[in-house]
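Our preliminary data section would be incomplete without showing what the modeling component actually yields. Below, a chain of 752 amino acids is followed by its predicted structure, encoded as tokens that our downstream tools consume directly.
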Amino acid sequence: PDSHNRKERPTMSNASQRIIPLEEGWNDEIKAKAIDKLEALLNGGMDSGQASMFGPREYVQIYTTCYDMCTQRSPYNWSRELYDRHGQTIERYLTSNVLPALREKTGQGGTILLRELNHRWSNHQIMNKWLKKFFTYLDRYYVKHHSLPTLSQSGLRRFQTHVYDEMKQDTTTAILGLINEEREGKIIDKSLIKSIVELYESMGMGTLDAYNADLEEALLSATREYYAKKRDFWINDSTPEYLVKAEEALNEERNRVADYLNSSSESKILKVVEEEILEKVEMVLLEKETSGCRALLQNDKSEDLQRMFRLFSRLENGLNPMASIVQSFISTMGDDIINRRQARLDGGEKDKNDDPRFVKALIALHEKYLGVVKKDFSGHSLFQKALKDAFVEVVNKNVGQYTNAELMSTFCDRILKSGGEKLSESEVEETLDRIVQIFSYLTDKDMFAEIYRNQLAKRLLNQRSTSNDAEKLMIAKLKMQCGTQFTSKMEGMLADLAVGSEQRTEFEQRMRSVDTKLDFSVQVLTTGFWPSYKSPQVSLTPEMSKCMGVFKEWHDKKHQKRKLSWMFSQGNASVRGTFGKKSYDLQVSTLQAIALNALNDGVSLTFEEFSRKLNLDHAIMKPLMHSLSCGKYKVVRKTPPGNKINISDKFAANAKFTCNMRKIRIPMASLDSSFNTKRVEEDRSIAIEAAIVRIMKARKTLQHQQLLSEVLAQLAFFNPNPRVIKKRIEALIDREYLERSADNPHVYNYLA
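Predicted structure:
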């Protein structure tokens, strides 16, 4: 024998030289001194932790006998016989001792049976361990050379065949019974079940096949049955109460797996529970009249909504119906705001392009549900889309004669012009942020841009802007939302004023050398950036004409290739007016200043005389004289008195005019509409044609329907009617950018 084997048998004696017959070695040594003693100890309830079952001397003696019997020369080499008897010993013990004990306990309750099985399984592991120790030499050589199951495997297989296979049905039933008891709140012996689960795992011989087939399948089926009953019982509760129970159940099942089941079962068990208590009743829970998703949104039940989101996000597509309800709810809330505006108009409120109550309500609604989406629904993309789709629907529903685009732009005007909303810098920025969020849902963004540009122009030209920084901030927000092309004109307007201030300083120095009573300054604007204005050729006062001549001469020297056009309708003036003994500073437009100058020194003029003197037609004279004689500050007396200007009226300075304030601003109705719809339509036509040409240049040939959908996808600032696109296609065919295919009239070809 090898040297390392010698180490294990320090008491080798001369007896080893003698041939040991099989029966003698087995009966007198191995069975009598090892197996019988081992069985007696196990049956006597020997504690598995005791170290003194066999002392070193006993163990070595038995090991040596086995070794010698396996190393004798043939025909006295008893390796095969000892291997067979090892198996038979275990088999006999299991069938004569273990099985009867287990059968006896079968009808006595789950815990009793499982304890007995656990005890017998522990004993079997002890027996297997010691027999493996005694017959180690077999494992090392005989088993290896003959490719047989190891002694441990052989012992396990026999336990499986003779005990496990017969008892597994009863033990599985017992385990399921205990698990259901625990589900009902009873305290059970978790460590006992854990030990039995380990037995099931061992029976797979290195795989989980036995555990899966014999315990897990039955457990999943029992779990489904248990929670189906619970579902039918719980469904009468309110949705939040139901979901609290559902979440508790899922947490308990997760903990149950951690406590005593195999971790691979967790996902399968949770899936069964989710299907039974969530998936099968999702719509019932979501649509409950007084406690479903709608009711929770209505009553701001944040915690319940978070739980609902958490639970239904576990299901595949479980959030889709919830998101649909959220979208429909937000749409309904938005429609309420629109209906309230309609009701105010129907109730006789004047329809104006300024309705801060309406815009603030939209902003508040958006802010609220944006918070709900972020906090309660973790900013999930489905709910962001639901919010967006709801607001796209609401924001593009117009009520009254003014579009929501105009109401929103006017709201921005209130925020940004002096005398509007009284807000701090941070409040202004916050409000602009929120209005831009609402603006992002508009389909007619180009309409908003046109109105906003007109209002921006008025603020800038009338020096009514609260802060240049706030104006830049708003334009930057719009630029981020829609790109440079969208805001280039607005940026140009601000740039004009920045450049203009330098030029004004230079011109003021030139004006110092001119003999005039006027404090005269000019703002030069770039035609392409600013809205187009009506500019009547009014008869100016000599002083004004003189100053204008000086400016033209100075400007032409500086910029020889630029052509100046004077916009008198946009100018403003400060006029000193003396009525009786009191004098006032009147803040008026250039046209109003010229009209007041014409009535100096007690002059009285009829409407027609006035019109000829100022060289203005009736359409301009009427709003002009209305502002001076029918407004809040009647600095001109009209005869006969009244609130309407007629051609037969006569005008003179109002000598009896008095006012508590010394500085008075007299507003005049704008001669231009707040925005030019025609111009927007023209810009749209150009944008549509550009998109068509871009697409066709890249694709060369395209079907009508495909071209239509690609054009719609490219246009970001408005949503054109397909009929309009068709007209633009016809126009491009007429101008030979495109042609219809000879084979198919619905196909277009690009002409280079």
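Residues 1-16 have pLDDT under 50 and may be disordered. Strands lie at 572-579, 582-589, 604-606, 636-639, 650-653, 663-665, 701-703, 738-740, 747-750. Preliminary results of this kind motivate Aim 1 of the renewal.
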